[in-house]
Amino acid sequence: MDVKTAFLNGDFEEEIYMDQPEGYVVQGQEKKVCRLVKSLYGLKQAPKQWHKKIDSTLLSKGFAINECDKCVYMKGNSDSFVMICLYVDDMLITGNSPRVILEIVEAMSTTFEMSMIGELTFFLGLQIKQNEDEIFVSQNKYAENLVRRFVLKNAKHMKTPMGSTQQVCKDDVGQDVDPPLYRSMIGSLLYLTASRPDIMFSVCVCARFQSSPKVSHLNVVKRIIRYVAGTSDLGIWYSKDTNSNLIGYSDSNCTGDVEDRKSTSGGCFYLGNNLVSWYNRKQNCISLLTAEYEYVAAGSCCAQLIWLRHMLDGYGISDNSMILYCDNLSAINIFKNPVQHSRTKHIDIRYHFLRDLVEKQLVQIKHVDTLFQLADIFTKPLDHERFSSLRKSLGLGFL
Hints:
This protein is α+β, with helices and mostly antiparallel strands. It starts with a strand and ends with a strand. The chain has helices at 46-60, 98-109, 140-149, 179-192, 200-206, 215-230, 290-314, 329-336, 353-359, 384-393, and strands spanning 2-3, 17-19, 33-35, 64-66, 69-76, 81-87, 90-95, 114-115, 122-123, 126-130, 134-138, 234-239, 246-253, 264-271, 274-282, 322-326, 364-367, 396-398. A hairpin with a 2-residue loop joins β9 (122-123) and β10. It is built from ten helices and 18 strands. 31% of the residues lie in helices and 22% in strands. The mean pLDDT is 88.
């Protein structure tokens, strides 16, 4: 659903004046101004006032807000519920009762002028296809437009976004490239990662050189786009699954940056069998041990895991099972053994966040063989066979 002229619905909490609009100036009162009684587009207060208006309207109709995401509202119970996801003036309405959904739509239409688009096929740049058992989410049209925009449609397609032995590092002697062009390519690819976790690592690595990009960096970005060109219709499959267990995979690459020797953390998170979140982040510390890199990465993963659990609690899903898989036994032993010793006493206190959760039995830490470490794809470039295997395990496929 789309709310027409949404920002005009906001109410003011302060007095705001504006010049008389051109063509509507009252003769003899040219020096007077107009006092606004409703919000207008272009005002800095307009977005906030609109959100306050829609928030109060939904709450007055019996919806409850999810405290972990102020733009998600729910009403009802397991027998009959409606959920509304709000993004500015676009609303996604879902539930298990078409009759209740229709009643909510009609009630909202009495307050706002709205247009009902129908069954969800497109939302915030995501293409969505549904059947009785599965949902397919992709950015096919966006990916094709991206390839055309950067004139690589006819270039040779690549099987992976980055070579398995390729290193991207600072280039002091390389030829400069146009920074706005490079940043535009990076920004476009980052938007694509909303449905393409397979390019997350390579794009984030290239994004580190936006201040002074060189031809060597541009060539890596072009390779990513050539990979996208050959896989533009790739997307994520979501299946019906009543399993509400939260499972995370955490990994890092030891001293992955050849310049400052800092590692890259990566993680992915599943609700049941479905991938719901993923991330890639360069660590801001230099560790002394391989286990320390993994320890820091797992702590970051656990923060996301806890947030996802709180989100589910807001939805009324109260399964407390949370498992984090790590492929480093030494790091796992640090989590499970709170005794401080000479090899770990230097670790910053904030990274002991996960140890506390393990002691309270809120999170289980389990070992996984490196071969089955799904977060591996977010921390390093891989060969085609390994890359394709992990891509499939993430739930990515073709329609």
